[in-house]
Amino acid sequence: MSVSEANERRPPAGRSAGGAEQPGRQPAPAPGSDRRGGSSVELTGVSRWYGNVVAVNDVTMALRPGVTGLLGPNGAGKTTLLHMMSGFLAPSRGTVTLDGTPVWRHPPVYRTLGLVSEREAVPGFLTGHEFVLSGARLHKLPAPRAAARRAVEMVDLVEAQHRRVGTYSKGMRQRIRVAAALVHDPAVLLLDEPFNGMDPRQRLHMMEVLHQLGEDGRTVLFSSHILEEVAQLSGIVQVIVAGRLAASGDYRTIRRLMTHRPHVFTIHSSDDRRLAVALLAKEPVVGVELDPAGGLTVRTSDYGTFTRALPAVAVSEGVRVTRVLPTDESLESVFSYLVAS
Q1: pLDDT at residue 60 above 90?
Q2: What is the pLDDT of residue 211?
Q3: What average pLDDT does range 245-249 have in this prediction?
Q4: Sheet containing 101-102: which strands, arranged edge to edge?
Q5: Cα angle, residue 283 at apex, residues 281 and 284 outer, rounded to 5°
Q6: To the nearest whole percent, how much of the chain has pLDDT over 70?
């Protein structure tokens, strides 16, 4: 047994071999342990610009213990926000604080903050265990090997931990980066598009890990451009579009805003003209246009009401509907509506 391994097997400071409490420094809780009270990150009037380009525009939000989803299309400013929250980027205006302490140029915040950036920076020549262990040692943890072992177990990479990271799939590299961010048991965890490259099983397991961290009282923020990821994991959603905070609140409330916005459908049927006349008499339909090449474009004020009414109208008119296609379902169109509403 090496000296370092022997030291790691000693009882943690503040506890005797028999488990009785002793005066002195208390050990940090292990990953997955329960935290009460938690930490918070607050942004007040935060903006960031590069020359004449405004990447983030006057964002005010607060992150509390639990899991929060940062939702928005690519290029919306999510990564810039995360970099400012993690202290890697200074706001051009406004303040970002962790438990009341500014994160910019204040290295001690990294004792309680973990970050998984979108851009990979994992040395391929290291094994997964070595990569996580190096993080534990940088944080000067009293038992770095034990901490690395726990973090690797959390992300389900025990069997592959002694392989070189260069041989990992993208999903495995994402998971080992999460392990490195968790190794010092941070109160706040920030993740930029963490599910990129993961297969369905890996994605489900990672969601369970993040959900458990939130349940244990940690403050977890993950960014995504995929609504379903946020729906499965997060109750609180922050929607950002073009650098602005477009909507904020409970996922169900945000979802209702998206569902009840105006929608446009392209419909093909056996008798487009007859169907168009019948649809115009329905309350959620605000406009119908016939396409000379075939089909019709229907504008409706309520997605749910219209999709329920369409089959009944078609049956009553004796019209066979062959195709229904929403034409404005991109995230950009949905989020643009939220900005304007």
Answers
A1: yes
A2: 93
A3: 84
A4: 53-63, 41-50, 93-98, 101-102
A5: 120
A6: 82
pLDDT for the residue 180: 96
Q: Are 187 and 112 in contact (CB under 8 A)?
A: yes
In this prediction the pTM is 0.70
Residue 97 CA, distance from chain mean position:
20
**115 pairs with which residues across the strands?**
190
Closest listed residue to residue 199, CA positions, set 175, 235, 165, 226? 175
- Whether 274 and 238 share a structural domain: no
pLDDT at 330: 47
**Nearest-CA neighbor of 222 among 109, 115, 110, 96?**
115
Instruction: Mark residue 249 as left, alpha or beta (left: phi above 0; alpha: psi -120 to 50; beta: remaining).
Output: left
Q: What is the DSSP string of 253-322?
A: HHHHHHHTS-EEEEEEES-HHHHHHHHHTSTTEEEEEE-TTS-EEEEES-HHHHHHHHHHHHHHHT--EE
- In the chain the first and final C-alpha atoms are separated, in Å, by 65
pLDDT tens digit sequence for 107-120:
999 999 999 998 87
> Bridge partners of 269?
321
Structural domain that includes position 319: 260-340
Q: Is the pLDDT of residue 4 over 60?
A: no
**Residue 195 shares a structural domain with residue 287:** no
Instruction: Confirm whether 54 is domain-assigned.
Output: yes
Quote the pLDDT of residue 17.
33
- What tokens were used for 179? 């392990």
- The count of domains in the chain is 2
